[in-house]
């Protein structure tokens, strides 16, 4: 399948997409093409797009709660929601009231909600939520009032486009960016403890290694005493002169909410004395835990510079990322963990990879 550009998504909406915790979807005209079919006995049927279904399931894996909301008394929508394990509301007369009730149920604000719809019954919630989206086939009155309109039509992948934009995270970058400060603090404290009973250094010899760790594991705990980050490596050395730290084949492990581990590894690691810069060099690889029937999300590049105090990371090398249903690549890459966003600097390409 040839590489093609990903659908345009305005840069200012990345932050809005990163805040989403509840994603609501109209059904007819959004998850379907809007056409209704009746058999000779008057039974109604409609068609759904399988890639939309996977996108909705992936939202759940990324901590976003998807809900189907339709004004019609649609048994088909109930069946589709049941097949996907997604909450479904039918015969809804006031969709905004329904969304507000869901916000109260989940303890979130409307700014943390995305809504996708195509016609007038969707107008009120679209005007109230943090991310309002319409499919390409939406009525013009709707299209001119949303934040973004997909390139594909309802029932043909429009919902998947939105899901892909909200399913952006490839690693827990906030945790990754905190590794440098954490490691520097741990090692500085340890060095101070080792040296507290020693007198002033003699001779001013600033050449060589200050101390070495072999085959070690460092586990950092969060405020609840649970694992936050684990570092494993066969060798760590701190230079006596500039206090910088070199690590051979570092492996960072970061647990998710289910206790499974994201991993980030490289051939070498380097940390500045103050912990404000960390350099990972050689086959930098990040991987999410794989779920049943769902392949892991991956991140690959040759080198990565991490700036914890600035909450950012970057590389000028080729980056390749994969996640279920999509592959992306580009030359140059930057992460801003404050806004939970990333972007490629040049030659950005992507392709959908539907599962069979």
Automatic annotation (TrEMBL):
This is 3-deoxy-manno-octulosonate-8-phosphatase. Keywords: Cell inner membrane, Cell membrane, Membrane, Transmembrane, Transmembrane helix. CDD domains: HAD_KDO-like (cd01630). InterPro entries: HAD-like_sf, HAD_sf, KdsC_fam, LipoPS_assembly_LptC-rel, LPS_export_LptC, LptC. Belongs to the KdsC family. It comes from the Eukaryota. Pfam families: Hydrolase_3, LptC. One of its GO terms (molecular function) is lipopolysaccharide transmembrane transporter activity. NCBIfam families: KdsC-phosphatas, LptC_YrbK. The keyword Thylakoid does not apply. GO terms for cellular component: plasma membrane.
